[in-house]
Amino acid sequence: MIQNIITGQKAEFERKLREPYVQRETVIKGLTTDLISVVIGPRRAGKSFFSIHSAGIMTGVGYANFDEERLLKVANFDEIISAIRSVYGDPKTLLFDEIQNLDRWEIIVNRLHRDGYKLILTGSNSHLLGSELATHLTGRHFSTHLFTFSFREVMSLLKDNPTDADKQQRCFEYVTKGGFPEVWVKNYDPVEYLSTLFDSIILKDIVKRYRVRYPNALVDLAQTLITYMTGEFSSASIQKLANISSVHTSEKYIGYLEEAFLLFSIPRFSFKVKEQQKSGKKIYCYDNGFFQAKAFRFSQNTGKLFENAVAVELRRREMEGKCKIFYYKNQKQEEVDFVIQQGLKIKQLIQVCYSLSEPKVKDREIRGLLKASAELECHNLIIITNDLEATEKHSWFGHSGEIKFIPLWKWLLTDIGS
Fold first, then answer.
1. Contact (CB, 8 A) for 294 and 195
2. 55, 100, 301, 409: which could form a disulfide with 171 (CB 3.0–4.6 Å)?
3. Residue 49 within a domain
C-alpha cells in the first residue's frame, strides 16, 4: 500500500514539473548545499510547486506529500523511506511536503540528515518549522519564506506592455482579490475559493492539531480580527470584542492564527523595549483575499485593503531580512502607519491613504508624518495613495520636511531602498 501511495505521488510530482510555472522572486536557500532547506508559508501559496520546480533541476530526487492521511497512519517511517527508495531508485535528495503533519518529524529529519540525505521541507506552520528546527537542527538548515504572489509576480503574468493606467487597474484588482496563485493562474472565484481555504486552514491546521475545544469561538475570533485588520488591538480588547471566555484563550487563539499564516501583527515602535512590549499591536491579514471572503462587512473598504497590501509587502521584505516594521503613535494619539527600521536606524516613515482629496485628511496624514519625523529623526517620508504622485515640502508648527507621494502600484513595484 505504501509503495502505491508513493507511486501515485510520483505521478503528481512529474505532472507538476510539466505544468507552466510562474517564476517566483525568491530562491530556495541552501539548495546546493548539504544543509536542510525549509520553505515556509501559507497554505496554497505555491510552496509545493515552487519546491518541485526548484528541485526538478537536481538529479535523484524522491518526493513524499504528508498531506496524505494514509502516510500519516504508517507506524514505521522506515517503510516510507524504503518505498521512496524503491520507487525513485535510491534518491540522494528528499522533498517532503507539509512535513509538520508528521508526528516527531524533527527527529526523523535529524536522522535522515545524519544519514547523508539532502532534505527539502515545506510547511504551513511557522512555529513548528521555526522554533523546532532552531532547537533540533541549530546551524544545519536554511529557511525560505514564500508568500502568495507579490504584485510584481502578478504583473509578470501579463504578456503585453502595460501602460501606467493598466498597472493601476491591475493593482486595484490585486488589492481586491489578493495574491493566491490559483486565483490568478486558474481564474478561481476568489471569494468562494478563499472561503473554503480559510475553513480548511482553521480545521486542519488549528482545530485538529491543537484539539481546540471551542472551534466556533476560534472562527468568530478569526473573522473578527480579519474584519478589524489594520486596527490596533490588545488581547483584552479582542477577548471582549469576540466574546472569548478569557484573555488567556484569546492570546492562545491569536497565536494559532499567526502560526497558520492567516494573520500577523506588528508592534508599536518605542526606543524602550519594555514599553514596546506593553503596547498594543496592529493586526493584518497575510492576503487581502481573506478580507473579501470572510470579513463581516457591509461595503467595500478600500482604505483597509490598501493598507493591508502595504503591510503584506513590508512583511515579505521583513522575512527576507531587509528590515523590521513597526507602527508609531505619539502621546497625542497621532499615528504613522509604518516605521521601517534597518539595523539601529529608522530609515523610512510611511502613511497609507487611498484618497487625499479632502484637505482635512491630507493635513492629518502630513501632520502625523512631520511630527514623527522630528521625534524619530527620520526624513525619508512617504504617503502611498491611489493615484497622486508628487514631491512636496510641508511644515507644521516648526516641523518641516519633504514628502514623497506615490501611487500604490508604483510603490509595490519598487524596492524598499528606493
1. yes
2. 409
3. yes
Helix axes 47-55, 2-18, angle to 10 degrees: 80
Q: What is the mean pLDDT of each run of 10 residues along the chain (418 residues)?
A: 94 92 92 92 95 87 94 92 95 93 87 94 78 69 94 89 92 96 95 96 91 89 92 83 81 92 94 71 96 79 96 95 94 92 95 95 94 94 96 85 96 74
Instruction: Quote the CA–CA distance of 286 and 308 in Å, as a whole number.
Output: 8
Would the pTM of this model clear 0.85, i.e. be above it? yes
Give the CATH number, domain containing residue 82. 3.40.50
Buried b (16+ CB within 10 A) or exposed e, 9-20: bbeebeebeeee
Residue 98 in domain: yes
Cell of 261: 499564516
**Number of independent structural domains in the chain:** 1
Distance CA 63, CA 78 (A): 15
Q: How many CA atoms lie within 13 A of 240 on its CB side?
A: 4
- Collapse the DSSP code of 188 into the 3-class scheme (helix H, G, I; strand E, B; otherwise coil) and give the result: coil
Angle of the 77-88 helix axis to the 2-18 helix axis, nearest 10: 50
Residue 418: its pLDDT value, please? 46
Q: DSSP 3-state assignment of 151? A: helix
